[in-house]
Design goal:
This protein is mainly β. The chain has one helix at residues 27-30, and strands at residues 5-13, 23-26, 40-47, 54-60, 69-71, 80-87, 93-98, 104-112, 116-124, 134-137, 147-154, 160-166, 175-177, 182-188, 194-199, 204-212, 216-224, 234-235, 245-252, 259-264, 274-276, 279-285, 292-296, 301-309. An eight-stranded mixed sheet has the order 1-8-3-6-21-20-23-18, with no helix packed on it. A four-stranded antiparallel sheet has the order 2-7-4-5. Strands 9-16-11-14 form a four-stranded antiparallel sheet, with no helix packed on it. Residues 316-323 have low confidence and may be disordered.
Length: 323
């Protein structure tokens, strides 16, 4: 059996020619040999404008969701990026709505298969309590899930701190989700499909967009795999036995923006090195020794292994999930 995620060797540009409305993106048009049963895509969205933020939205074909994230503009010589995930229908089609097609680009960097489910319409799981870690119960929408996929969104005009963690975790990492924008996160949950969310202001919303039921182990507390030096591609600590793809929470220890990138060990791909949201969740393919590479602009960028994908366990669910 294979893990429920496949990372592409190179990013594939799927930016629509038409802006200002939802446009179909047929994956079979862009990528040859895709398997049946594909459930979703992993996206990298980039803005190379030096002075303008543009909105971006993605959704599963057949969805009525409409939640425009503003992708920030770069403020140095490197593009600005954010990561998203989106479901596809049975014909491998999803939809994009972009404000601009010159500076704003959308790339498919991977796809999900059996074991990862994307909801047709996202479910609002927003909390009202602020400045405290609060339970988020997803049992009704994500049965048997070991990991939850969320879209975080800030409806206000001020940058706000947010965080997510597995229920029972002592992690307390929070940093900014930009005003008018958001991020996509994957986080572990307990056996009752409960995770915990932190917001600094009630203008911050949380939407469940999907969940993982097989081929994924989420840690209760993240493992610090931060680098001690900056400016070059450097091997990260090896992931646990059996891991094929690492799930990494990336966060800065300041309010500054920095360039950051992840790639498979031994790759020469520089395209993912870019300015990022101060709090991000990323997936990276591992080599045969379970190692990936990272490059950071400043050692204020910290990385935590919070989980990993692997071949599904078929004999029993008992003991499959956990830290």
């Amino acid at each position: 059996m294979t893990p429920p995620i496949v990372m592409l060797a190179s990013p594939v540009d799927v930016t629509p020619a038409t802006t200002g409305s939802f446009q179909d993106v047929d994956l079979d048009t862009y990528i040859a040999g895709l398997p049946s049963g594909l459930t979703g895509v992993l996206l990298r969205v980039e803005n190379t404008s030096s002075d303008t933020a543009y909105y971006f939205d993605c959704r599963k074909k057949g969805s009525t969701d409409a939640l425009e994230d503003y992708v920030d503009y770069m403020d140095d010589a490197v593009k600005y990026k954010t990561c998203h995930a989106c479901g596809v229908d049975a014909n491998k089609i999803f939809q994009l709505n972009l404000e601009d097609k010159t500076y704003l680009k959308v790339y498919v960097i991977g796809y999900f298969t059996a074991g990862v489910t994307f909801l047709t319409n996202m479910v609002n799981k927003s909390i009202s309590a602020t400045s405290t870690w609060t339970d988020v119960d997803c049992s009704a929408s994500a049965p048997s899930a070991a990991a939850l996929i969320f879209r975080l969104f800030n409806t206000g005009s001020t940058n706000r701190n947010a965080g997510l963690r597995k229920n029972g975790s002592t992690d307390a990492r929070t940093n900014i989700v930009n005003s008018g924008g958001g991020a996509v996160a994957i986080v572990g949950c307990d056996s009752s499909q409960i995770c915990e969310h932190y917001i600094s202001n009630a203008e911050q919303d949380l939407y469940l967009i999907g969940y993982v039921t097989a081929g994924c182990t989420m840690l209760t507390d993240g493992t610090n795999i931060s680098l001690s030096g900056a400016g070059s591609w450097t091997d990260l600590a090896a992931a646990p036995a059996g891991a094929t793809h690492a799930i990494i929470e990336v966060i800065t220890a300041s309010t500054s923006y920095y360039n950051f990138g992840l790639r498979e060990n031994g790759s020469s791909d520089e395209s993912g090195y870019a300015e990022f949201l101060r709090h991000s969740w990323e997936i990276v393919k591992l080599d045969a020794n379970r190692v990936a590479e990272a490059k950071i602009e400043n050692t204020a960028v910290d990385m935590f292994l919070i989980g990993y994908f692997h071949e599904p366990v078929t004999s029993s669910w008992a003991g499959t999930w956990g830290g």
